[in-house]
Every structure is written in C-alpha cells, then in structure tokens.
Amino acid sequence: MSLRILRHLLLPLCALSALTPLGSQALTIGTGPLNGVYYPTGGAICRILNTDHALHGDSCTVQSTRGSMANLKALGKGDVQLALVQSDVLHHALQGTGPFSGQGANNELRSLFRLYQESLTLLAAPDSGITTLADIEGKRVYPGDSGAGEQITSLALMAAMGWQAGQFAAYQLKSNSEPLEGLCDGSLDAAFVVAGHPNQAVGDLISRCKVRLIPIEGDQIDKLLKLHPYYQRSHIAANLYPGQTASINNIGMSAELVALASLPDPIVRTVRDTLLTRAKQFSRLHPALSKITVGRLQAQTELPLHAGMSDLPPAPLPLTPEQLTPEPSTSDTAPTAEQVSTANGTTTPPEAPSDATSTSRDPVAIDATETTPLPENAPKVAPELPQSASAATAPQEQAI
Q1: What's the whole-model pTM score?
Q2: What helix, strand, coil percent values describe the chain, rounded to 5?
Q3: Which of 36, 98, 243, 267 has its CA at a distance of 20 to 30 angstroms from the CA of residue 236?
Q4: Cα end-to-end distance, the chain, whole Å
Q5: Cβ neighbours of residue 211 closer than 8 Å, sequence gap 6 or more
Q6: Could you give the dihedral angle defined by the CA atoms of residues 68, 69, 71 and 77, in that order, rounded to the nearest 10 degrees?
Q7: Taking the CA of residue 272 as centre, how many other CA atoms within 13 Å lie in the half-sphere pointing to its CB?
Q8: Could you tell me if 62 and 83 are in contact, meaning their C-beta atoms sit under 8 angstroms apart?
C-alpha cells in the first residue's frame, strides 16, 4: 500500500478523534468511605454523566478513599481526575499552610463546583457525661481521621478553645478498622467527624449505641469563624436522626469538586454542561444534595476556576426525570457492595473500605452507573437511616 493511500485512510480517523476528546479517557472521581456522603455524591455525578452518555462510550467511575487528604494525594499522582475535598483543606493546600507547610503552595488546583455544606460534628458516648463542648476537656477524644481532613478542622477548633494535646486523656481503640466504635465499646468519650447530614454512619451510631450529638458553639467559636472565612456557621437540622428533636449548632465548610489545571478543558466543559443542565435531578440523588441549585453549584470559591468552566454555561433543562433511566431499588439508601457492577458488567465486591470518617486504607474503584438509582418520579428525598446496621460492616453497605 502506498504512503499516499495510507495517508488518505488515516486522516479521517485523526479528524474523528479530534472531535471526540473524551473517547480515550475514562473519568474517575476520588470520593470517601462507602457509608459517608462523598461516595454517593461522586456516584450521583457519575450517574448523570453516564446516563447522558456524556463521555462518549467511556464510564465515569468513583473511587472510595479515606477522604479529602487522600483525594488530593490521588489527584496529584493522577490516580483520579476529579476529587471531592472540604474547603478548609483546600485553603491550606492552596496557601501551603497547616499539613501542607512542608510542601509549599499548590498552584495547580482548580475549582469546578461548590456542592453542599458539611460540618464538624461532635459525637459523645452515652455515659461520658458530655453535654457541651467545654465538657470534652480531660476526656478521651478522637480528633478524626487525618486522611479525611477531619483533624485539620478539629485541631483548629481546639486551638481556638486554647486547648493543648496534653489536656486530654489517652485512649486505646479496641478496633483498628473502626475508630468510632470506641463510642460504643467504652474506649472513647467523644469523637469529631466531618460529614454532610444526614450521614449513614452517624445515624447508625445514634440508633445502635445511643451516641449523642453535642453543639459546637460559644464565644471562642465565634472568634474562629471571624478569623477564618473558609468556616461558616452551620447546624444539623432537627429530626434528621433518632431522638434528635432540636437543631444542633456546629462549624460548617463546603464540599467542593476540584481538578488539576492540566485536566483538558473539553472534559471539564462536558462535566460542567451535563451537571448544570441536570441540576434538579442531581439534587434528588441524596438528601445532602437536596439544596443544590445552579446558583449554589457556581458559587465563588477560594480556588481559581478551571479554564474549562470560564465560558458561558448552558441553560438548565426542565426537570424531566424520565430521561434518566430508573433502576429498581429495595432501599432508599443504597444497594449492597455485591450489587454494585463494574464497568465490564461483572460483580466485584469492594475491598474493605473505611467508615464515613476514618477507616479505609484500600481505595475501591466502582462503576457509578449502578450506584445511584434514580427514582421514576423524582420525589423529594426524605432521609431514611438504618436503625440497626453496624458501621463496622460498611463494606456490605452503600450510602447512596
């Protein structure tokens, strides 16, 4: 075959590939533990992208991780292309402060969307005698998982309160896989978690072990909020959990969808256009997403906006849930891990993931096309929390 003929055969293929820039790259989102909120949020994003076939044959997948800090590490290594990260962690990464002080400022991080508000939540064991934030001094307090970014927030709170590590009693966790089980087995008096609410793991601890939610409020907290604008006043609405009849004040921050500046603009535009036009459907895929609107998604963040987000976005489509293929579900929360199908159609149970706040060490890549079934009539989501399932059995429970 002559070179001229070969050139004529190859040119149309090259032109086709230029028109479908997403066709050779699957999209993976770094999320969080299976029974947290990051994981089903990533699944909801992928569900919208996959149902609309926005990736031109490739599948969007979610990867279960320990949380914000682990996601930034995976993003830097190229293991994921998008990541869910809490806003105070992003601030420190952008400024090269806190846990990133030895690494310098990260100038490659870019913002796509601000998703929902999550909060620093204080949990107390039923027999701890803790009823206020001040009561935790001298107690056995778990500051949260460093991989999830919880320690960044809880240590900022402790510094605002004027507390040092030596002012708290030592503790010895009885379970290496589930630190929050210490609230049930007597090895902990209190624990901090960062979570969107309602949260499956928090609901399980409250219903199973009579764990209590403690308000985070006071003059020192007011000063903390004024000093650090990436924190906001927040509260857990009443009646989200068993026996919780009043709202609970605490510290809030944003859960944000981020990428590196090097992620190609066409990919970012595809994510942007698809999510904005389906914002109403997206808001109905998990209770924590229920307040999401196009305006909230595009709220200004501290990070620079990705270049692919800069041109004029499309107008949102009307709510037409029938355009998204519904799938049968026996639970309003999630299918079991064995029911989650991978992109090749086989059934693959995930490796042992972490709990909503702290325990996963091995990421689990899961095809999100089957993780967030959409209701036929897209009803308003009413939070339903498991009453008896153990948070220690998170590998068998999905939080979507």
Answers
A1: 0.71
A2: 35, 15, 50
A3: 98
A4: 55
A5: 123, 124, 125, 126, 183, 184, 205
A6: 160
A7: 24
A8: no
